[in-house]
Amino acid sequence: MKTENFKLAYQLNEKYKETLLKGNVHFRPSLNSLSLISISEDRPELGVKCSLSKFKASNDIEALIKESLIKINLKSISENKPEKKLQAWIINNALIHQHQLPFNHDIKFITSELAIKIGKNKVVTDILGYNLATNQLCVIELKSDRLLKRLIVQVNSFEIIINENPEFFSELLAIHGYQWQNELPNSICKIVVWPLRENISLKKELKANNIIEYTYQEDNKAYKF
Question: The sheet that has 34-38: what strands, in order across it?
Fold first, then answer.
């Protein structure tokens, strides 16, 4: 697995940060492509694929961004899922505040919707972060419900991927300027972010599976954690 697209996305996000934030978008890399993704409230997580050759060769990246923005804004919204709205808000907040995730400022936003195959199955993590204080690569799942079984399968599957590909993830973090010491114990952290439910507590089950919980409440088009 190569980190070339991740490096390009990082460079574009940093160099054109003002333009991207004004348009409520950011570049999201994958192993094989690059996309421009909306982090706006009305079009959360809608996006368009970008031509890698164009973005590598162009002398007018601003124009390419504007072209992609037009395509995103012309897209129809078929379904506004709560997780997508939450994800867009968290990423937008992080990009405004030096990549700090709003539920824990020690955790820096690295990327989102990272998809990697295990055999024939594709495993995706909603957000990948890095905890500066604890030297932990953070696998973060965002949920609008409390389906514990599905959560455990998702975070454990991505933990396996990280353990099988430490060099790739070390290189990914190095792009962002972080030196991940993956040989140390507890260098991976599994996290769920889901709604506060005062009448439901899954703390014992989460602790048994080494999953950290952050809860949120919606507050006037924003979120409190």
Answer: 25-29, 34-38, 47-50
**By three-state DSSP, how is residue 1 classified?**
coil
pTM of the model: 0.95
pLDDT at 24 over 90: yes
What is the rounded distance in angstroms from the CA atom of residue 173 to the CA atom of residue 167?
Answer: 10
pLDDT of 179 > 90? The answer is yes
CATH annotation of 82-224: 3.40.1350.10
pLDDT of res. 181: 92
pLDDT per position as a tens digit, 187-218: 999 999 999 987 677 889 999 999 999 999 99
CA distance 217 to 196: 6
Question: How many other C-beta atoms can be found within 10 angstroms of the C-beta atom of residue 58?
Answer: 12
Cα 104 to chain center, whole Å? Answer: 14
Which residue type sits at 72?
I
Say how far residue 81 (Cα) sits from the centre of its chain: 16
Q: How far apart are the first and last CA of the chain?
A: 35
Helices (H) and strands (E) in the chain, counts: 8, 10
Half-sphere exposure of 16 (CA within 13 A, CB side): 22
Name the one residue in this structure whose structure tokens are 């994958």: 30
SS3 state of residue 220: coil
- Model confidence at 25, pLDDT cuts 50, 70, 90, reads very high
Q: What residue spans define the domains of the chain? A: 4-74, 82-224
Helix 166-175 and helix 4-15, axial crossing angle in degrees, nearest 10: 20
One-letter identity of residue 121: N
